[in-house]
């Protein structure tokens, strides 16, 4: 490489944009495969990413296998059939729903649509890290509001949004990582309390497993509400990356300005369509998830820990110590091939989070949790 | 909705970011499904998107079907196994290759990494519209350089890059939409002629079908070169959205700052791995594509048209008239259920572009092209 005289041995190279130059290389979540590669410990129980080990519908598997030979053809960039089915499912217009590469992909687009460098964005301290990653990626300024116990603090979030003139607020209902939920009326009051120029990003990834009365009625007339759902959780299709967002057509239309139109893969579209049509499987999976939550809670209590109520496909468990102790428990489980995750924010960090899963995996949890607790207690 | 007094009936709503507010809703390419939906004319021959109707390897199809039941698990966000296989395939390090949701998705990320609003970006007039879409999306200022005949004009591109202080130059080799190619030495001279602070986006989507000596030797020491390849063309996997980019680890590492880490679907990763391992199928497909190019050229000549030499999986054909006439030919083919595309830029627009495909589809081309030409001639 040439060294230009008088420029003190700076190697000429393409500079990152000023916004990107400030960003670290990062991964919001390290995957279980990576953890196993680094530790050399084989994965025995994959119960940390809130996937559904109960799997997709057999009809979905059959539809994907049948469509595999057509993988040579680009997907429909308008996602027409999937959007039509989602619109019918939700009782809204096709121009009020957009599909994308998981909620993660859609969150990135939503931030890009509405957040310019310096804009204020509100979230809860300890809420979804991938949202924060996207806000940082577009230069937004995050303001974190502490949880109130196991719940996101709706009135504090709304207050902070008004104080900061925020452009965007993130709320997950049901909540991840705490598993709590607000009833629909509380969410509606929250929406009403926000300035109409402030967009609410309402993440309903766990909506299918929530008690009746958790999800507000759909009202796409609201000018400042986008709701996000996914096929990754109850539908058991995390691997195919299909999320969707719905709301006012002005907001949804914005995605057409910037999205990767051919981004949603063909087999994912096929799978989502088949999944949406198989009500029986969804009902079965939601029931299986509820039973697994019960068993996880039982295992926790048998070990002297306090499970929290859950509206999701995971159970958050208070380990009874501090954040360091909970981290030790998590590390000891990892040593035994059990992959789970935990919240890291102060106030939440004494908890660990365990995903609903088939009995074969929960058997391993039941076997290893007492060992992990003993080891953590001894080390702590 | 509230109307605020004194603000002339402006409905309060979340404003788009200043950058997005200037963008139109757009689709770089309208898909064949959408055309069929709008026209009501059933699709008989899908030979317009440079897909490979010869399909993926049967081993790929089997691998995808076998992996379908595991669709409940998130993909590995590090794409470890695929990147390891690509690194071995290319003879480079794993930190020198990144996989993403098609070349389209990676182009969007590359533009975001290096282009700030107002930065100059160079491309050829009539080259890949999706690249232009991403440049506009991040506020880059595009400078278009006319083709020199059927080739991108390398010396004019380099001159323009220096004149404008461009941050980025796009070059496709082999070229789309003209099917032409430059030999490796010309591309290497072009890279050397660019300032090292100007990143060359070298799109080699059609690299597998190019004559020997088209692709420059791999040299990841270059500070300003990213090369893009895909499983969408010769490998026959456009539906699964798997592209990759490789180059200097500093450039490749940048993607970790902004990419959607879980964006590459699990079945796509499985398919790409299997496709990369099946050399026999790739060889067969490249042979079949070459034979189909020959047949398309024959059909063109039989109809008095002039096919251009092609290093790609399509044949660009000079219709002998002006752009309006070529558009008429395209419209008349569409009326007959034949989906093709054409370049729109002045100088290129008298051409149409037909994808290599199995004989069953080229039979339909052979049947309909004379009809379309007669109809276009009559209408013109």
Automatic annotation (TrEMBL), chains A, B:
Residues 48-369 form the Aminotransferase class I/classII large domain. This is Histidinol-phosphate aminotransferase. GO terms for molecular function: pyridoxal phosphate binding; transaminase activity. The lineage of its organism: Bacteria, Pseudomonadati, Pseudomonadota, Alphaproteobacteria, Hyphomicrobiales. Belongs to the class-II pyridoxal-phosphate-dependent aminotransferase family. Histidinol-phosphate aminotransferase subfamily. Keywords: Aminotransferase, Pyridoxal phosphate, Transferase. Its cofactor is pyridoxal 5'-phosphate. Gene3D superfamilies: Aspartate Aminotransferase, domain 1 (3.90.1150.10), Type I PLP-dependent aspartate aminotransferase-like (Major domain) (3.40.640.10). Coiled coil: none annotated. PROSITE patterns: AA_TRANSFER_CLASS_2 (PS00599). Pathway: Amino-acid biosynthesis. InterPro entries: Aminotrans_II_pyridoxalP_BS, Aminotransferase_I/II_large, HistidinolP_aminotransfase, PyrdxlP-dep_Trfase, PyrdxlP-dep_Trfase_major, PyrdxlP-dep_Trfase_small. Transmembrane segments: none annotated.
